[in-house]
Amino acid sequence: MKQFKNILLINFGGIGDEILFMPVIQSLRKAYPNSKITLCLEGRSKSFVNLTDLLNDYFCVDIKTKNKYIQMLKLYFKALTGRYDLVISAGANPLISILLFFTGIETKIGYKTSGLSEKLLTFAVDLNKNQYASNMYYDLVKPIFDIPFELPCINTGECVKLPDSVLVHPGVSKISLDKGIIKTINAEKWSELIKKLLLKGKNVYLAGGPDDSAVIDEIRKNLSNTNFDNFYDMFGKTKNILDLAKLIKSAEIFICSDSAPMHIGVAVNTKTIAIFGPTDEKKLLPKSNNFIPITNNCDCRPCLWEKRNTSCENLDCLNINIEKIMENI
Fold first, then answer.
1. Residue 153 covered by a domain
2. What is the span of the domain harbouring residue 240?
3. How far apart are CA 104 and CA 178, in angstroms?
4. Are residues 176 and 136 in the same domain?
5. pLDDT means per 10 residues in the chain (329 residues)?
6. Which stretches of the chain are assigned E, i.e. beta strand?
7. Do 123 and 169 reside in the same domain of the chain?
């Protein structure tokens, strides 16, 4: 197996995309324990680096802004001057292969997105999107070693499980909402679910990030006339993404939407029940009895990213019966 001392990884996307990319980082650290590994990611996802101790360095490039060409130049000069001997890029844009070619890095790995990428990359890997996304990313390291795939793993340290606990995280990213992407049930249904859990005697913990304040406020309002001593409002008490990961690890059951916290649930191996609307659960959750997708199997789903880039008006896919969730608890 060829040795690499200085490795550059490029993966643009949200925090969920970075967590899905973790098996690549994990396997590289196993194969090259003494190598320097640097990750290039978007600024909106830089908190991801607090979830892993496998990286030596990182830098941010925001290629989805109006200054994307300046940002691409930043990436080029970082790659050119970093003295890397291996670069792995998860991007599907053919321009990436051109950029990497001119960096002079000896071994360049990326996806086979055009005839040009086959000529410019050392290894052009088939892009197979019809699988769990972590496996799709993991295909990128197969040309250089044969280490078995492992699920994303976040080391939170020791966490004691909270007895009879169900952690509910109802939010999705504000960026998704701004783009007209609806991926979860409404606050009324979340409130109905929480009430049913409380009546079952479960200790229910409610969490969310800054983007989730609107849905959290509506849930609080819906619960204001109830008096349960087994309800715990944790909104605002997780100060960073690692705090959230520890809270998810401490829960016996985690209920969420298709979102970054869902991927954290997988990476800390907590039983996760995830609500899916227009997206494809087969690509975003691994096959496991520990990770359960809840769907309403209407004829048109999945459609988001498959047929459209925004949610449809009907959203029949999110007409989910709360009892279907309760049956899995």
1. no
2. 165-326
3. 39
4. no
5. 94 96 98 98 96 97 88 94 97 87 95 90 95 98 96 94 96 66 85 96 94 91 90 93 97 96 98 92 95 86 65 75 91
6. 6-10, 36-41, 57-60, 86-89, 107-111, 123-125, 165-169, 203-206, 231-233, 253-257, 271-275, 291-294
7. no
Which of 155, 164, 131 has the alpha carbon at shortest distance from 264?
155
Spatial contact of 207 and 169, defined as CB atoms under 8 Å apart: yes
Yes or no: say if 100 and 108 are a contact pair by the CB < 8 Å rule: yes
Both 173 and 62 in one domain: the answer is no
pTM of the model: 0.93
**End-to-end distance of the chain based on CA atoms, in angstroms?**
46
Q: Write down the pLDDT at residue 167.
A: 98
Residues in Cβ contact with 237 at an 8 Å cutoff, skipping those fewer than 6 apart: 207, 243
Task: Look at residue 166 in the predicted model and tell me its pLDDT.
Answer: 98
Predicted pLDDT at 175: 64
**How would you classify residue 79: left for phi > 0, otherwise alpha for psi between -120 and 50, otherwise beta?**
alpha
Question: Which helix (H) or strand (E) is 323 found in, with range?
Answer: helix 322-326
CATH classification of the domain holding 35: 3.40.50.2000
Cβ atoms of 203 and 289 within 8 Å: the answer is: no
Tokens of 81: 């001057």
Same domain, 212 and 286: yes
Strand, coil or helix: 274:
strand
Question: Given this model, what pLDDT does residue 11 score?
Answer: 97
